[in-house]
Amino acid sequence: MDSILVKGNGELRGQIPIAGAKNACLALMPATLLSDEPLTLTNAPRLSDIRTMTQLLQSLGAEVASLQGGQVLALSSHALTDHRADYDIVRKMRASILVLGPMLARDGHAVVSLPGGCAIGARPVDLHLKALEAMGAELDLRDGYIHAKAPAGGLKGARVVFPLVSVGATENALMAATLAKGTTVLENAAREPEIVDLARCLRRMGARIEGEGSSTITIEGVDRLGGATHPVVTDRIELGTYMLAPAICGGEVELLGGRIELVGAFCEKLDAAGISVEETERGLRVARRNGRVKAVDVMTEPFPGFPTDLQAQMMALLCTAEGTSVLEERIFENRFMHAPELTRMGARIEVHGGTATVTGVEKLRGAPVMATDLRASVSLILAGLAAEGETIVSRVYHLDRGYERVEEKLSACGAQIRRIPG
Ligand code: UD1
């Protein structure tokens, strides 16, 4: 297993290109299952999660070609040869559940493994299932699998009121509804930019959708969808992560392709901490104003609130802030596994349930640490960039799920970081 070695090396200066969004791409890829015509995704990120989704779609009979070094994905689902998403793939990546809605909508049946537990909390899929049931699907849970059947004549439009905001359940229901008979209204739908991106792509394929980006999405079912070419939206989590690099180390970095509207609530917190963010012709420029970062309180919420996927990285910043910050995690229980690792680097963090209290220290110290999940792993790299001495982050396969060429992107700005093959 590879590790990453980071040495604190002062200020960072330069440019970092931001890739297409992993989470958007993982929802766009299964949209191929809705049509027998080709779907081409451009600006795709090159990540192991994308390769896992590729394998899953191929196991169902879809063709997926990775072109231009992986930045273009050419997908085609002329006829599906299998309708079963196996446990071996689903357990690697929860987003696999997103093949359920499209398969059911197109062919009237699907068998998908239940994703099972996950390091950042229980993460059930009940909301996905309730939405599909409201559209008439019959579901049977046995042997660890969801066996789903559409009624004769296919899924029916329905009013679905989500009791809590779920990105994945909104995506599954949205895709299923494009081919259902009649009108579907999704209420308390997720408003994330990845949902907006999916709706735009589906519309390019011929779907009739209104209201994406608001909490009510209306879908008028159509008989069939066609092909399309669609660019994947910029990754707001990768963007926010690299915005934190000059914030934590000092210096000034331009994030190419970055846009404020993707990271509004996050920018407000950066501003309060003393970090300046300005728009440029090509993206966003981030710089630390004079002196130490100030403590700020953060609460994670569904979009447009502060994203849970930036909580670990923000904690790394606040570990060196002046004063005490309170971070409240409201989306996932048990998402503070980075806290004990940051503590090994000299951070002062107390966790009680979903709340972490961080008292800033002047300097973190390098240490051997372990990545426990995707966002936790990059928070340890950020902390290592600001620490005195060497930090070795082990188990970086988590990192490779969501960040492409992290060493290259950071070293181009002057960071001392390299991979140690293991
Ligand atoms: C997506 C993102 C993930 C991000 C999360 C929240 C992808 C591939 N992943 O995950 O990076 O952290 O949104 O922004 O896009 N819930 C239920 N029942 C369900 C579904 C969800 O109770 O059926 C709960 C979850 O346990 C969690 C909350 O709802 O507490 C939000 O989860 P959800 O928005 O569904 O997250 P994902 O779509 O899995």
From TrEMBL:
Pathway in which this enzyme or protein is active: Cell wall biogenesis; peptidoglycan biosynthesis
Domain Enolpyruvate transferase stretches: 7-410
EC number: 2.5.1.7
Catalytic reaction equation(s): phosphoenolpyruvate + UDP-N-acetyl-alpha-D-glucosamine = UDP-N-acetyl-3-O-(1-carboxyvinyl)-alpha-D-glucosamine + phosphate
PANTHER family (alphabetical): UDP-N-ACETYLGLUCOSAMINE 1-CARBOXYVINYLTRANSFERASE (PTHR43783)
Role noted for this protein: Cell wall formation. Adds enolpyruvyl to UDP-N-acetylglucosamine.
SUPFAM superfamilies reported in the protein's UniProt record: EPT/RTPC-like
Family membership: Belongs to the EPSP synthase family. MurA subfamily.
Protein name as it appears in the record: UDP-N-acetylglucosamine 1-carboxyvinyltransferase
Broad enzyme group: transferase
Xref: InterPro entries: Enolpyruvate_Tfrase_dom, Enolpyruvate_Tfrase_sf, MurA_subfamily, RNA3'P_cycl/enolpyr_Trfase_a/b, UDP_GlcNAc_COvinyl_MurA
Binding site for phosphoenolpyruvate: K22, N23
Localisation per UniProt entry: Cytoplasm
Annotated source species: Cereibacter johrii
